[in-house]
Amino acid sequence: MSEQDEKLGRIVALLAERGLDALLLKRASSFSWATCGASSYINTASDYGDATLLITPERRQVFTTNIEAPRIGDEEGLTAQGWEVVAGDWYGAETPLDGATQGMKLGADFPYPGAVDLSASVSELRSQLVPEEIERFRELGRTCADAMAATLPLIRPGQTEHEIAGIVARETASRGAWPIVDLVATDERIFRYRHPLPTTKRLERYAMVVLCGRRHGLVCSITRLVHFGTLPDDLRQKQDACAHVDATFLAATRPGASLKDVFARAADAYQTAGYPDEWRLHHQGGVAGYESREQLGNYESTATVSEGQAFAWNPSITGVKIEDTILVGPSGNEVLTEMPDWPVIEAEVDGRRYRRPAILER
After folding, report:
1. What are the pLDDT digits (tens) for 238-283?
2. Does 354 lie in the same domain as 238?
3. Mean pLDDT of the chain
4. Does 134 score more than 90 pLDDT?
5. How are strands ordered across the β-sheet holding 333-335?
6. CB–CB of 208/311 below 8 Å?
7. How confident is the model at residue 1 (pLDDT cuts 50, 70, 90)?
8. Within this chain, do residues 216 and 331 fall inside the same structural domain, yes or no?
9. Which one-letter DSSP state was computed for residue 19?
10. Which residues are CB-neighbours of 92 under 8 A, at least 6 positions away?
């Protein structure tokens, strides 16, 4: 069965389960998932693209404007995939979609009049990766790791956070992925902010670089830190503790485990490491896929870990952080964003040793 047939089959099953006639997909992530990696967005800062998919058990259509129809049909390959591309005037008050959905019982992943909100169900479908997606994820992981590996040697004291973010963007985009998250903090800002938008602050001794790269709709996450000069003892202690928490996440994220139990084990690891409340200061990550996080892990999570899913955990202790994207395999987890020449900390969990990224000392 092809990737597209598998996904359409899942959609038809969802419609039957909910007693609906059709599914509307407008989120850029859902569009990429359903079309096997095509892109509908123009503004990368928007959750929604410039096209909407209408899927029934009998047909599949994409509704867009006359501006986007040629590119989506030809360059994004939807015509070759068998989608019917329906174009409306960009200036029209009414769209062909309005008429096409009359009288239908609809589900949608975005607010649409009369439609049942299926955004959570669609997110769950997006997170169940098929073999073709897994290979694309592996390639993206290597790309993001390579971009990070190319960035860090170019960082120098005196550079602004904006300059560092520009290096990240260049190294990522030049490799064919897009940096949809490009965060940089230096020195004291690493201790103050968990989501540090880059500023004009100049690097003195310590930098954190965060990248979420997107290609074919999939999103890979990676964070690395570099310190110029000998690492202070307090940071060394924190990075060791953070590595233990991260290794706990990796050990616990196995097929059949409930997401809330994985989270609970990691929260206990914070306690054991001597930092019991640090998990409260920032989300810990969760299921990855066509969003940077399809679902966050917490004490209320209802999902169960499945083989073939991707996860991006990001434990942090004030001043340090670890983040990689992993793939859940049959006998172990594969780190998709591993950087072979990066310094590591070995942390033991359940009798197994995990090599987790350390802070680079330069």
Report:
1. 999 999 999 999 999 999 999 999 999 999 999 999 999 999 999 9
2. yes
3. 97
4. yes
5. 295-296, 285-288, 310-313, 324-328, 333-335
6. no
7. confident
8. yes
9. T
10. none
Q: 127, 148, 166: which is the final residue of a domain?
A: 127
Q: Give the CA radius of gyration of the chain.
A: 22
How confident is the model at residue 202, as a pLDDT? 98
Whole-angstrom Cα distance, residue 120 to residue 294?
Answer: 9
Helix (H) or strand (E) holding 361: strand 360-361
Give the whole-angstrom CA distance, residue 113 versus residue 80: 31
Torsion sign, CA atoms 113, 117, 118, 119: positive
Question: What domain range includes position 65?
Answer: 3-127
Q: What phi-psi label fits residue 37: left (phi over 0), alpha (psi between -120 and 50 degrees) or beta?
A: left
Same domain, 70 and 161: no
Can you tell me the distance from the alpha carbon of 68 to that of 128, in angstroms, rounded to the nearest whole number?
A: 29
| Stated pTM of the model | 0.96
* Same-domain check for residues 122 and 175: no
Structure tokens at 356: 């987790």
Please write the tens of the pLDDT for every residue from 6-26. 999 999 999 999 999 999 999
User: Exposure of 161 by Cβ count < 10 A (0-12 exposed, 13-18 middle, 19+ buried)?
Assistant: buried
* Residue 64: strand pairing partners: 51, 87
Residues 336 and 355 in one domain: yes
- In this structure, what CATH number is given to the domain that contains residue 113? 3.40.350.10
**How do strand 22-27 and strand 106-108 relate by DSSP bridges?**
parallel
> Same domain for 36 and 145?
no
pLDDT in tens, 211-224: 999 999 999 999 99
Strands 310-313 and 324-328: antiparallel
Overall number of domains in the chain = 2
CATH of the domain at 158: 3.90.230.10
